Amino acid sequence: MTRARRLTGLALATTALLACGAAAPALAQPNGPKYGTPATAFHRTATYPVYLNVPAGVDPADETVAEISAISPDGDTVIYTDAEGERIGFLDVTDPSNPVGAGTLALDEITDAPVASPTSVAAYGELVLVVVDTTDYDADTLASKPRSGELVAVDATTHEVVATFDLAGQPDSIAVSPDGAYAAIAMENQRNEDFPADGGVGDDGDLPQAPAGFVQVITFGGTPTDPGTWSIDPVSLTDGAALPILEAAGIDTPEDPEPEYVAINDANQLAVSLQENNALVTIDLATRAVTAAFDLGAPVVPNVDTDDDGAIELTDTIEVPREPDAIAWIGDEYVATANEGDWKGGSRGWSIFDAATGEVVWDAGDTFEHLAIAHGLYNDGRADNKGAEPEGLAVAEFDGVPTAFVASERSNFVAVYDVSDPTAPVFQQLLFATNGPEGILPVPSRDLLVVSSEVDDSEEGVRAAVNLYQVQQGEPSQPSIVSADVDGLPIGWSALGALSADPFDKGIVYAASDNALTPATVFTVDVSDKKGQAVIVDSLVVTDGGEEASFDVEGLQALEDGGFWLAVEGSSGPANALVRIDASGEVVDEVTLPDEVAAHVRNWGFEGVTITAEGTGDEALWVAIQRPLWVDPSVGAGSLELYEGNVARIGRYDLADESWAFFGIELEETGVDGDWIGLSEITAIDDDTLAIIERDKLNGPDAALKTVITVEVPDELPGEGELTILEKSLAIDVLPALQELDGWTQEKLEGFTIGIDRQVYAVTDNDGVDDATGETVFLRLGDAKKVIPAFR
């Protein structure tokens, strides 16, 4: 069946209900399908993988992360925490388009603690304030051990220790007041997820688990640069008048508060998020008094997907505690919270509260998660566990406009909002980030935004990085493709691995998702705005016998009758198939490989399909087989032996006589250990000329080969068992176009097509945000007559 869609722009109005039962205010949006065309916007200028900054002797493949970051007073040096490497790093961002690693400082050089991990960092004058967790996290005994930590003041230039303060507990975040008079540290004393609550009751991870958390307040004194004049004072949340305030607020387990994040406003009022307690506490720094506490409630959020099943179906409603992580003041009256969730909740959005009353003045409802979906970033593997999971949050003023930045930990983006009116935020733009954006650092003095990411896996090519964005004129180059919404809900999409032009409409191309998304779906993409975003405006679900089909669609050919041929990659050679669907999406025909080829394909099979001489007696389908054939594909991948050298095949299937013929293409080599080259798409330029994607398996700074090649097919076809090797020519080197985006260079250049107006398009497969950044790049490569020599 077909799911009719219409282009309605990308306004994502929320219908969520607040915990109090009142309807949530609608999320105001700029007009138009591209979120407006601002005179200025944040443009990504660089993505710096922090493994490039590790000390000599450290294997660059070792895990190294960037979590929380700070900026030097002159705005030229980013300081980031690297808990995995047990160090802090320095990055020179004098030129935001060319950040330079400025070395690291190992914690064993600044503390004598046997165990040390940085949890947060702040810049204060000529000093770097490093918050260090020195707790021994022995899973067998942690429940009975005291938590411990230190604040280490380090000279920013010499890296010498100026002072060390015992924090008397396990710390999390630090904040310095805008006037430089105070700093505050959230002393979480976090629970142990492997132990039940005190007394052995309840499930593992339940509260309470002593000791209770608290806050440390540093007063910098008359000589701020001299730590000898500083004082450090604990503020208990369970002694004296504090506990009754928390109890009166009705928060979860008030006897065991666990502070997560701190923020200070211009009036030196401290806001503290208690994530596991689902609460917010305010403290007057001058008097050290707890002034208020609020339970943050459990909003009702409809139109979300809570099933980890590969399908994006916005049919569920949740009602769970917000459990905020990062928080930020908006002026002196409002506090914003990123509702990441923990053991009991996570409302998949963010909220704004009146700091005096605790009243919810605005809630994102379902709109934050819908941003992930509209941009192809929805991580379905997290659907049953907090979804897009907002974690980082910061607020700063840029060009006179109070601006909020909210980061999605699991969908790898930062959403930017105008919060001039805290009761009606206006979404401005979405910024792609590398995996697990954690630290959100606005630098208004430099018109910069610094985003540090904490996920690092060298085997998967996912590396932690510092992402830089700068306010510049014009519209950013990314995002390049989004989906429209219908009746308030975005079209769910991901993992676009195939493209095909419409046979009649120059403003339409089609894309298909691979098996990262189920059911198999063909998307209609509006490309009529030549200088703007491509917009997914329709979706067609593939059915087989009336039932939704789950195919790994890797190739797509639109037909003049409204149907499509699909290249379906199988988990084994015989499972590869060319599947024809009619205009309603129903399977009407299927073609498989001959046995003598299928037996040697394994799971690196069909990657593209195209057609020549459509509607004539010479009509033929052409397919690209991703990798060379194997002698025995039943053995493990590490033991595979090539059947015919480093040669991949393209196949020609004659629709009239149902016969196959095969040609060979000799593949390039990068010389990188573990890399392999394959084919990813095939497109007919004319009846004798084919364009084919040839690419490596590398990404990020290692990416080396992302090309479109062309081959001329001889009139005489190879006989059965024969293989004619075709001479190939470079048509388009796509790598520079991917690198010019200043992000993480994507691995999977997989879709390519040429419109009837000769416009050339390509797209990257985001792997369904699984071991990938999730960014989809939709490329407009120009007029085929100008960019493809064979087209001339």
TrEMBL record:
The molecule here is called: Alkaline phosphatase
Keyword Signal among UniProt keywords:
yes
Q: Which Gene3D superfamilies match?
A: YVTN repeat-like/Quinoprotein amine dehydrogenase
Give the residue range of the signal peptide. Answer: 1-28
InterPro entries noted in UniProt: Choice_anch_I, Mesenchyme-surface_protein, Phytase-like_dom, Quino_amine_DH_bsu, WD40/YVTN_repeat-like_dom_sf
Q: Which UniProt keywords apply?
A: Signal
Q: Which residues form the Choice-of-anchor I domain?
A: 346-428
What residue stretches are annotated with the Phytase-like domain?
492-767
PROSITE patterns to which the protein is assigned, alphabetical: PROKAR_LIPOPROTEIN (PS51257)
Lineage of the source organism? Bacteria, Bacillati, Actinomycetota, Actinomycetes, Micrococcales
The protein's matches in Pfam families, at most eight in alphabetical order, are given as:
choice_anch_I (PF22494), Phytase-like (PF13449)
